[in-house]
């Protein structure tokens, strides 16, 4: 089998990606450490060739591939399920003569590019670099309208890493202090965005593009504790206010047309305020994170591996696409819920106990002995995920216990609202 290198996979998808790629005729090679995963995800990765590296360290990844040519020798392509890594993946593909994601998907990994292409559906946005912020050349007061203040975040980052809120009336010094506090300020060329802080419910639109044609699968709705996404309801289109569904779909089709994207999945996130949706993350070229692939499988009566085979091959134009899953009509099927739970205050996780004999799927994200950030800090606070029919998840979450160095803890979560 031809090798496909995978840079970027989460705990849920790691359970299925090896089987997905093998069904499509490829042998997966992961730039990941199985010991950083738990349970079925770790077992799945141990069944593959893996090279441990910190994918957040660009230079470390490039050095690994330069020092060990065997990784890329006879490889066909490189891909991943984190769109913010697409620019790095494209760089690796060019250096090592590999196939990679569609160029349009690589460009759309930047929130700055998306906001520039789709200003009518984006929050008011200022684009700048770390150097601009350090020179105090970016004044949040020029961002209008922004009645609730603003949010500063890296243009190419997910999971709320590096995001911070600025109150109304903040100035250039406040913005620089916020950027510096993230620890990501050392790179003066790093692109950032400052966007109006939109208050509203968080929805995402799942779907894909094939031959330039947009296919919508379903809407989902998330619950959050500060910066941490802690729950996801799918399908959730019935919860959208009147007219918002059509506006969300128009935003996606317009972005596809203006960007020239011809194929690939999307997980477009909208904050819906007073009936008006604002696109805050395009997430082009991948399926939604968390446990969304399991929810899609449950709703539509599919195998998660078949979904991921379509996701991964559609995202590699040179690969030839696996058969499209037989998704049901939008909004039909079983109502599913997933809790991406954490713990208040964070800490060291010794183990997790989930209810036995239930019908829900449980994925432990942090391995035994690992540490998690306090819930609210971002998606790095995830301890585990419980996924299944809505009524069953709502019942079984009460039986989840996180055993920590400070004793047993109940998981922290909120329902989508």
From TrEMBL:
Gene3D superfamilies: ATP-grasp fold, B domain. Residues 115-313 form the ATP-grasp domain. Keywords: ATP-binding, Nucleotide-binding. GO terms for molecular function: ATP binding; metal ion binding. The keyword ATP-binding applies. This is ATP-grasp domain-containing protein. It comes from Streptomyces alfalfae.
């Amino acid at each position: 089998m031809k090798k496909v290198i995978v840079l970027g996979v989460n705990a849920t998808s790691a359970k299925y990606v090896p089987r997905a790629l093998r069904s499509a005729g490829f042998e997966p090679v992961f730039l990941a450490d199985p010991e950083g995963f738990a349970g079925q995800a770790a077992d799945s990765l141990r069944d593959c060739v893996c090279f441990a590296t910190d994918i957040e360290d660009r230079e470390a990844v490039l050095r690994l591939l330069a020092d060990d040519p065997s990784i890329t020798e006879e490889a066909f392509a490189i891909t991943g399920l984190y769109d913010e890594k697409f620019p790095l993946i494209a760089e690796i593909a060019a250096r090592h003569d590999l196939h990679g994601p569609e160029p349009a998907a690589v460009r759309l990994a930047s929130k700055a590019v998306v906001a520039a292409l789709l200003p009518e559906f984006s929050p008011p946005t200022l684009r700048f670099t770390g150097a601009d912020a350090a020179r105090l050349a970016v004044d949040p007061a020029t961002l209008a309208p922004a009645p609730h203040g603003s949010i500063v975040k890296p243009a190419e980052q997910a999971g709320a890493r590096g995001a911070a809120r600025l109150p109304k009336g903040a100035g250039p010094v406040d913005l620089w202090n916020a950027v510096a506090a993230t620890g990501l300020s050392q790179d003066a060329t790093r692109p950032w965005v400052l966007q109006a802080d939109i208050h509203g419910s968080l929805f995402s639109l799942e779907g894909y593009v094939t031959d330039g044609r947009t296919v919508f699968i379903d809407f989902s709705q998330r619950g959050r504790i500060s910066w941490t996404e802690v729950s996801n309801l799918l399908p959730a289109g019935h919860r959208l206010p009147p007219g918002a569904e059509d506006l969300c779909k128009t935003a996606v089709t317009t972005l596809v047309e203006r960007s020239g994207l011809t194929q690939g999945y999307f997980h477009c996130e909208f904050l819906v305020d007073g009936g008006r949706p604002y696109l805050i993350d395009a997430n082009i070229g991948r399926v939604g994170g968390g446990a969304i692939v399991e929810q899609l499988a449950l709703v539509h009566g599919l195998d998660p591996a078949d979904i991921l085979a379509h996701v991964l091959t559609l995202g590699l134009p040179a690969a030839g696409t696996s058969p499209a899953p037989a998704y049901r009509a939008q909004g039909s099927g079983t109502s599913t819920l997933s809790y991406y739970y954490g713990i208040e205050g964070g800490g060291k996780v010794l183990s997790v106990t989930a209810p036995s004999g239930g019908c829900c799927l449980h994925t432990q994200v942090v391995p035994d002995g690992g540490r998690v950030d306090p819930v609210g800090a971002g998606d790095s606070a995830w301890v585990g995920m419980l996924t299944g029919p809505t009524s069953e998840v709502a019942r079984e979450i009460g039986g989840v216990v996180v055993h920590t160095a400070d004793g047993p803890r109940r998981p922290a979560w909120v329902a989508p609202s």
